[in-house]
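The freezer alarm interrupted the setup, so I double-checked each line after restarting. Inputs confirmed:
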Amino acid sequence: VSPRTVRVALLGYGCVGSSVDRLLTDRADEIEETTGLRLRVVRALVRDLRKPRPFQPPPGVLTTDFGAICEDASIDVVAEVMGGLTPTEDYFRALLAAGKPVVTANKQLLARRGRELARAAELARLPVRFEAAVCGAVPVVRILCEALPPRSVRRIVGVVNGTTNYLLTRMEHGRALDDALDEARDLGYAESDARDDLNGSDAAAKMALLASTAFGTPASLDQVEFSGIADISPRDLEEARRAGRRVRLVGEAAVDDRAVVVRVAPTELDEHHELARVPAAFNEVALEGDGFGRLTLRGPGAGGPETASAVVGDLLAIAAGRATSHLARLGGAA
Amino acid sequence: VSPRTVRVALLGYGCVGSSVDRLLTDRADEIEETTGLRLRVVRALVRDLRKPRPFQPPPGVLTTDFGAICEDASIDVVAEVMGGLTPTEDYFRALLAAGKPVVTANKQLLARRGRELARAAELARLPVRFEAAVCGAVPVVRILCEALPPRSVRRIVGVVNGTTNYLLTRMEHGRALDDALDEARDLGYAESDARDDLNGSDAAAKMALLASTAFGTPASLDQVEFSGIADISPRDLEEARRAGRRVRLVGEAAVDDRAVVVRVAPTELDEHHELARVPAAFNEVALEGDGFGRLTLRGPGAGGPETASAVVGDLLAIAAGRATSHLARLGGAA
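Predicted 3D structure, all chains:
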């Protein structure tokens, strides 16, 4: 049986986008043997065609013209890994209008406009998935949408920003924030612009998405009370550490008679607490609920290949033609 | 829109079976709102109609006649939660022959006969799922089959038997094995017959299933080198504990150029090791691989409601008509 070819386009070909292309190329045989599908990145939208790339696609793949993707009827599915709100939201809507299923890694867009985009996807009857938008390689969206009985989760608690987790771990050993941030950038644990990490809005966006997905009640970013780590002094962290305590940026979301509360704040924990022991740059999410008790997931929360792994999982589900739309969870009850 | 009713039958109505019925009943509204489906347990096979049950189904549901399930064309899907090898394997094959998709919690049957049953399911073109057979509520099978790129896992390490994890935790504080076992039974952490737990064959069966699912190369139970905890003395455990060490029953599966090695053995670990810190009666599985790095899942590994949660996740996938057959992974490459 010859495999069915699925033509994939990417919006963005940076760290995540190029890792998706590399993963689909390197593992093409295993994917074909297991699924009968051959996924090929045929087009990728970039701003600068001449920029050097770690993984160089064949000539003709990179394009600066969104229309070359949106209007190409041969493209089966699009992964949005460019980030940002503008023009990304317009692209997203144009792709749905053109009949293309979308996989996205864009937590800020979904946390702000998830409800409206869910409606657009529903009208278009297209599946949209966003595993890569929450906790990198950790498949928590899929577990919430598919593995657990609907709305059985009552509380979510986690360390969902690897950058601040790394910074706090270093600062409690005396590093200044700026020095720790330089180290984090060298190690690939922080991007050049780390504002959303430091002020807590990255963690807040993830917690809003997890809450909406789990509880069936849309929670948008402006409902989340959040604070970051910029004002914490290394001296306080060191003192806490000597007293057997750790400060971590903890997110919490809970539902009670349909009232949803979501917050993110630096939180002092006993050094033996599960969340105090999350390795630097990792994420951990605990789901608590009726029946299954407490389920904990831990893994790399960011990074090109790690995030690409989540994007590919969603692409494969959509390519196989059996994907439910996880985005529907952000639209609230029908 | 009126919901589509899906008629479910159970083989077995013990701790897990009655919890499945209870969960589908208690959460019927949430399930319907989220999926548009109404799942109803219409028939359940038992040995004794008069035995008192914690959750009593309506009259006419319980039956001692397998034919009343297998030959009833109105039954859409069957969950096998009776355990055992005989007559369970015959029932399994008869259900496939009758065109019924199956969800099973039976690790011993699949670890011994998974390859053959996978072929039968493939011939019948029916999905079979077995999340509940491995680590209770922890959705590791789904993650291996759907969330991670095919065959990207290279190594699996875990504490996959909650009973022995509880016993070791108690014995290192001086309890004799038999006393700890009585406690475990009182707490619902051990069944009356705990032989498969103590001798390691329960953990071995789970590791064989995880290895087959992850690596795409069937690993049957007789390929697993395993030993249990029956010969470990509380004195040795106490001494290890005082020296900052813990003994845990650790399972490991690794693949290298398609050679698969699976083993289960009591293993001494530093007290700070992740696997030394798995709470009593919990399971933890770490998946290591290319791209995603290391992904760790922790949750209750047994228990009626916990296992029922996994059964219901599989029932919902099949009921929605979009389920891939996870059992196909046990059949080896096509």
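Quick read of the result. Chain B touches chain A through 50 residues (CB under 8 Å).
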